[in-house]
Design goal:
CATH topology: TIM Barrel
Strand order of the largest sheet: 4-5-6-7-8
Order of helices and strands: EHHHEHEHEHHEHEHHEHHEHH
Largest sheet: 5 strands, parallel
CATH class: Alpha Beta
């Protein structure tokens, strides 16, 4: 089975992560990746690129897409994009990447869009409207979306599961606005992370079925859903679902103290219906020419 992991992250940040976040004014990233107030080990792993590739090999993953992070400042986006671009140039056979961008900064996002293709990127995201403080329905985002559509770059949007349960670092997204944006921007392709925050399992599914410009990734499924989510999502949207892990998050924190990819891949291979497996693991994301 050929497998592409459509949702991973990599942070080429050396030294003290908390000090770096403070110097870059990246408050949210520093909060969720710094020492936890409850004393628990952070869920975020920081592998070297060599370990990243070894973990891919161990899990049988042919290619991974490194999603940009939802940085609060486009100055950070540019810094991280330069480093990620260098990494994918060194590993073109294994790695692709989306450019990090904050659409709330119109001038800064235009500069990133204009350079993204030449830098080797193939999409934009992961974006988080709550953390990055943009309004997906305003004119500034519309300008960004139009520019992304012009170069046929998909946009990956973080969506948070709307539930009473709280967990460390949770930042709720306005899922109703994101769903409305799908109709507003028919020329854009969107990847809605985390099964669209679970919206595909509810009433929002009817709206999604009517749209051909969206895909749903499975990032962080073991942390957010029970194992039935794999089958439910694939039965609903076989032509629109894509495998994503959210590596290097520790997706099974009770089992592992370091990041790994084998367990989520094995879980997905076991739970995804065989009739949908090739589409889910490979064919659907290949439609985007990433």
């Amino acid at each position: 089975m050929k497998i592409i992991d459509a949702h991973t992250h990599f942070f080429p940040i050396e030294g003290d992560k908390t000090a770096w976040a403070k110097s870059a004014c990246e408050t949210y990233w520093g909060f969720i990746n710094g020492p936890r107030p409850d004393g628990k080990l952070s869920l975020q792993g920081f592998p070297t690129i060599d370990k990243f590739l070894r973990d891919m090999d161990a899990a049988g993953i042919e290619r991974a897409i490194i999603q940009g992070w939802y940085w609060e400042h486009n100055s950070t986006c540019r810094e991280q994009n330069r480093k990620i671009a260098d990494i994918i140039r060194k590993h073109p056979d294994r790695l692709s990447a989306f450019a990090a961008v904050n659409p709330s900064d119109g001038k800064g996002s235009r500069e990133i869009v204009e350079s993204a293709q030449d830098m080797g990127f193939s999409g934009f995201g992961e974006l988080h409207e709550a953390v990055q403080k943009f309004d997906i329905m305003d004119d500034i985002f519309a300008e960004f979306a139009e520019a992304a559509a012009a170069i046929k770059f998909p946009i990956c949007l973080h969506m948070t599961k709307p539930e009473p349960r709280q967990y460390f670092g949770k930042a709720d997204t306005q899922n109703d606005k994101i769903i409305a944006a799908i109709a507003k921007f028919p020329h854009n392709t969107f990847i809605l992370a985390h099964w669209a925050g679970g919206e595909i399992f509810g009433d929002g599914g009817k709206i999604f079925r009517e749209s051909g410009n969206i895909f749903f990734d499975s990032a962080a499924t073991p942390l957010l859903y029970d194992t039935s989510a794999w089958k439910k999502a694939c039965n609903l949207f076989c032509k629109n679902v894509v495998f994503g892990s959210d590596y290097p998050l520790r997706l099974y924190p009770r089992k592992f103290k370091t990041e790994e990819l084998i367990t989520i891949t094995d879980e997905a291979l076991r739970e995804v219906p065989k009739c949908c497996a090739e589409a889910f693991f490979y064919d659907n994301i290949k439609k985007l020419k990433i």
